[in-house]
Amino acid sequence: MEAASEGESRAIAFGEEQEALVVRSWNAMRKDAADIALKFFLRVFEIAPSAARLFSFLRDSNVPVDKNPKLKSHAMSVFTMVCESATQLRKKGKVSVRETTSKKLAGTHLKAGVIDEHFEVVRFALLDTIKHAVPAMWCPEMSAAWGEAYDHLAAALKEEMRLLSSSS
Amino acid sequence: MEAASEGESRAIAFGEEQEALVVRSWNAMRKDAADIALKFFLRVFEIAPSAARLFSFLRDSNVPVDKNPKLKSHAMSVFTMVCESATQLRKKGKVSVRETTSKKLAGTHLKAGVIDEHFEVVRFALLDTIKHAVPAMWCPEMSAAWGEAYDHLAAALKEEMRLLSSSS
């Protein structure tokens, strides 16, 4: 899958510095990544409680949200994919997700009823969580680098969702 | 207009203490209320940038968002209405908006394309803004009181939107 419309319409100036900002903060968070990822999604639900209803594994579970293993796993996937997107952007100037993965992800997100507003809240929650996880290294440039990596990943997923939606 | 479904489905225990928490913080913010209200909506757009596109007076304007007089005025209306809702809840156990006002508000919000997710982001931004405006007096009870006042106001508006939408 190629980087999608929203990503491609803007100039991509994602160089070694931008990648380094993401990777440096990622390395600082790595040992607590699972906890931070979980905080990230709890932050999403704090801002938009109804977003929790999009997750079948939360709807169908009696386990408290913050103990749900599938939420932890989903949160870690998003967190690591954004980090990996930074490296892809620096290397190739675009975000690619393996075709099988991207189609599956697009299908799941479409079926769940994910809309643009959700991508926005997730973006805000991601940056806000990282800011609180590594306050000493947080700076506007780091925020911009993570934001850019997220935007390209989100654009790629949204484009795949659009294709899937128009083909069905 | 009567308090609406979402509000009525929960027990309303909004007494003098709850009202006092809202009014006390409101009084502390009063002299800067216009600035705080503006921050509140800038926070909404920080979390959900696309929400800015719902406002015709932002779409059609060349003035920077934070200088837009109509945004300031809208933000102040929401802020004061939530505060007034607290007093109504304590006095009458429900939120009432004058009929002409509520119909007009419902029409504007429906036409703009406001959805439940927007109400959630606005709620989060409201509480977060007040928390930062009066950090010394902020506490879980104050958060709950403002949240409750907001929820009842939002439920009243959403119910009016539902009625308007089903009648057209």
Could you name the key traits of this structure?
homodimer; 168 residues; mainly alpha; Globin-like; globular; disordered N terminus; metal-binding (chains A, B); Globin (chains A, B); Leghaemoglobin-like (chains A, B); iron (chains A, B); oxygen binding (chains A, B)
- The percent range for helix content of chain A is over 70%
Major β-sheet of chain A, in short? none
**Mean of residue pLDDT of chain A?**
89
The proportion of strand residues of chain A reads under 5%
What is the total number of structural domains of chain A? 1
CATH level-two architecture of chain A: Orthogonal Bundle
Q: What is the chains' assembly state?
A: homodimer
Q: What letter string, H or E per element, gives the SSE order of chain A?
A: HHHHHHHH
What is Rg of chain A? 16 Å
Query: Count the helices of chain A. How many?
Result: 8
